[in-house]
Design a protein that fits this description.
alpha+beta
């Protein structure tokens, strides 16, 4: 490439970067006007109430949609009390048409599927939306797995009893943090 072509390429890349900044700013703006989507929507990921996942607004309400697509913003563990017992939950924050916080037991197959899949990704892959698809177990009606898709590709990540979950968690957290530390 000659210096003129380099300068033109650099100018085009700078224009593209500015457009990306504007796009991200538009995505992150709150909805204006009247709507019913104020605040976060917490989704509980287990089969306790007959469906694959549900919300609580006083009473459990099944979420009829079979997948959630958005940008992975955060993974974190939180100790909480459920049924008068201390328990640890994985909280997965997804930014879509609103902020969704998915809650699952820290040691469930649902959580393990997500952590194992995210740990195999690069931060650049998380610049694209991911799709989380709860999937029922076939032999145990209490088991819930989760398929993770990046664009149209299913993320294949296996685990077993020898899996080092501390290492998987650290890698998944590092990838998620790196993807969200981009300066726009």
């Amino acid at each position: 490439m000659n210096p003129q072509e380099n300068a033109e390429l650099l100018a085009a890349l700078m224009r593209q970067e500015e457009l990306l900044k504007q796009l991200v700013a538009a995505i992150n703006k709150p909805k204006l006007g009247l709507h019913s989507e104020a605040g976060n929507c917490k989704i509980y990921c287990n089969r306790q109430h007959g469906g694959l996942w549900y919300t609580l607004n006083g009473e459990p309400s099944d979420v009829p949609q079979t997948a959630l697509t958005g940008y992975l913003k955060e993974l974190r563990f939180e100790n909480t009390e459920r049924r008068k017992k201390e328990t640890c939950k994985l909280l997965i924050t997804i930014q879509a048409d609103r902020t969704y916080i998915l809650e699952s037991g820290y040691d469930t197959h649902f959580s393990k599927c997500i952590l194992a899949a995210i740990a195999t990704l690069t931060p650049e892959q998380l610049y694209s939306p991911i799709t989380l698809q709860p999937t029922p177990g076939t032999t145990d009606e209490n088991v819930l797995f989760c398929r993770v898709w990046v664009e149209s590709e299913l993320v294949m990540a296996s685990y077993n009893e020898q899996t080092n979950w501390q290492e998987i968690w650290e890698q998944a957290l590092a990838v998620t943090k790196a993807a969200n530390e981009i300066a726009f």
